[in-house]
Amino acid sequence: MIGIEQSCERARNSSCMNAENMSTKWTDLQKRFIQSSRRPLPRLNNGLLPSSSGKQKARLMRDALEASV
């Protein structure tokens, strides 16, 4: 009787460990995907996408040039 209880306990522990490993693997995969994603996330770069910040920089430089002339 004791042997069966021990094997059940062992099986329960190993399945919990597998579930933990799977969830950490999944979060690692998600992190890696987010990092390797070509398109940057909007919340990075102060909420501006690179295209809009590039346009802003160009506008600021143009305004500065016009002001200095």
From TrEMBL:
Designated name of the protein: Uncharacterized protein
UniProt-annotated stretches for the region Disordered: 37-69
Low complexity: bias regions: 37-54
Biased composition (Basic and acidic residues): 60-69
